[in-house]
Design goal:
There is one protein chain. By secondary structure, this protein is an alpha+beta fold. It has two domains: 2-58; 74-128, 5' to 3' exonuclease, C-terminal subdomain (DNA polymerase, domain 1, Orthogonal Bundle), CATH 1.10.150.20. Helices cover 36% and strands 19% of the residues. The protein is built from five helices and five strands, in the order βββββααααα. The protein has helices at residues 44-58, 81-89, 95-99, 103-107, 114-128; strands spanning 2-6, 12-16, 20-25, 31-35, 38-42. A three-stranded antiparallel β-sheet has the order 3-4-5. A two-stranded antiparallel ribbon has the order 1-2.
Length: 136
């Protein structure tokens, strides 16, 4: 089954319902639909409609995860100096920018190694239950 989604920028997307990974609101009440590693910002009304439709289609209650504060600064993650500098030098300032990157993207950054990558992955997992590439 396909659904038609209109993003906040006005573009339309036809999405197969079984490809939707997550429909969420962040702490700023911005609504998102996540399809694999891609995300589309949607309006609050459309978010509520999707949740209602999903509950009807699959007869399940809404599963909630603590919202990831996408506008938090990366500097607030308390990363090591080396890791923080790598991200800063690559102009990664906010959590939403970091969550759009994959492991491969990070390893391509100057001075970013496995140890720094693992540090980032661990903090994202423990603090937010989030993973790299989640908002791609």
């Amino acid at each position: 089954m396909f659904i038609k989604i209109q993003s906040l920028d006005g573009s339309y997307h036809h999405i197969k319902t079984d490809q939707i990974s997550l429909v969420m609101k962040d702490v700023k009440n911005q609504c998102w639909i996540v399809i694999g590693q891609h995300s589309i910002q949607i309006g609050e009304h459309q978010h509520d409609q999707l949740i209602t439709k999903f509950n009807e289609w699959w007869n399940v209650d809404e599963i909630k995860r603590a919202p990831v504060p996408l506008l938090d600064k990366v500097e607030d993650l308390q990363l090591s100096v080396r890791t923080a500098n790598c991200l800063h030098n690559s102009n990664i300032e906010y959590l939403h920018q970091l969550l759009k990157l994959t492991q491969t993207d990070l390893l391509k950054m100057k001075n970013m190694g496995r140890k720094s990558l693992n540090e980032i992955k661990e903090i994202l997992k423990v603090k937010y239950g989030a993973e790299l590439g989640e908002l791609k």
